[in-house]
Amino acid sequence: MNINATLILQSIAMMIFVWFCMKFIWPPLLKAMDERREKIADGLAASDRAEKELAEAKDRADQQIKVARDKAGEIIEQANQRHSQILDQAKTDATTERKRQVSAAEAEISQASNQAREELRNAVAALAVAGAAKILEREVDEQKHRELLDKLIAEL
Amino acid sequence: MASGSGELTSSGYIQHHLQNLTCGFGDEGFICGGADVAAKLGFWSFHLDTLVWAVLLGLFFGWMFRKVAKAANSGVPTRFQALIEMIVEFVDESVRDSFHGTSRLIAPLALTLFVWIFFMNFMDLIPVDWLPWLTEQAGVPYQKVVPTTDVNATLGMSITVFVLIIIYSLRFKGVGGFVGELVMNPLNPKELGMPKIVWPLVMAFNFLLEIVSLLAKPVSLGLRLFGNLYAGELIFILIALVFTAGSGFFAAGLSSVFGDHIPWYFWTVAVAIVFATLWANMKGKLSTKLTLWFLLAEMLLVGGAAFLGGQLMHFGWAVFHIIVILLQAFIFMMLTIVYLSMASEHH
User: Fold this and answer.
1) DSSP state of B149
2) Which residues of A touch B (CB under 8 A)?
3) ipTM (interface predicted TM)
4) pTM of the predicted protein model
5) Residue of B20, B43, B337 to mutate, testing the A interface (most A Cβ within 10 Å of its Cβ)
6) Is there a contact between B74 and A25 if contact means CB atoms under 8 Å apart?
7) DSSP letter string over B278-314?
8) I need a labelling partner for A87 at 20 to 30 A (CA). Which of A72, A76, B83, B108 fits?
């Protein structure tokens, strides 16, 4: 245990090592560590932000889905309404058409029957004249008996 | 055993282990030796072993940290980089907690001291005879491999810190402030309203107290580290001595089997068996409990009870010593920071 010049040399060695550390070790290490700390902080902030944005987007999407669903319901409702409307319309149209056709048929029928009646009346008149001629076996003067014949026709 | 020439005695073994390899320039040129050289050259000699190991470990520190510092980036760190950064972070936090001024020097200083001193202390955990035995084979008679068990090394560092304390005091307080702190504390004649005539007396008294406390800083800083490590080293040596004494009995027993010289294959077989046991455990072929019993039996078989006792004591002290070496490195660093922060702050 002697005190000797080791002391001085050790001191010099220490100063050199401290200098080396101060110059070449500490600054780059601390710089890297600070940079990483910043990076991590940024990353965490970004992830927070992303999370918030995601929640907002979800809200928006939910809202849009709700709107779309409402609209779809409305459209279906409208379609139903339109459907019954069309149905009603068709019913009314069919009823009118039927009525129209029925009345047309009735008119035709009555016209036909009138015509037939007219024709029949004429035929009966002719028949009556022919019958009367046969009965009398003589010529009937049409001029003479016109009055009589007309009276007969009118009675038919 | 790393003994010099001559017979091996307990005190001789201890003395030999506590001697540095002292070198210097004498009348006959560069000489190296033990206490004889130290006695001849006085102060102007130096401990080559202390310096070489200290510088090697310092270079190791520089290389290790520089490697990481060069590759350091803000990306994902490797495991080793994370370890280094953990140490740096720890030192940085310690400095921030204690030192409130701005200084580019103090944090790197603290880091260097902490890691370097830890490395130097760590040499204490290498079995005391290994490196001295190796160097003895190479023809070097003395070898103390733990630089911090050399009071020169610890005082060398603490005196450097002391110089820094003075520099910091002058830089932050000025010459007047520094001198004022020395003479106006703890009894401030101005505040106590003393008559001017007694001021020099009080100031001289203050100066006496303050200079002692100032000088006590480097001395206590250096001697604390030295004392702890020296004591630890000494206990390792004593344990090794117990083992030596035990192995003496054991050698007597073995020589009845092998004759005067225990043949080399005895040791080879012993090492091979221990290795095989450990290997079997690592491969999962032997439970850890069984392994421990096997090792105990093998150690008993090879070395006898004294050997086993020496081994267990060595192991126990080494485990305890891990705390000591780390703690002492930390204390040295912490006190350096505290002293420098005291030097740079007004009271």
Assistant:
1) G
2) 1-11, 13-18, 20-22, 24-26, 28-33, 35-36, 38-39
3) 0.82
4) 0.74
5) B43
6) no
7) HHHHHTTSS-HHHHHHHHHHHHHHHHHHHHHHHHHHH
8) A72
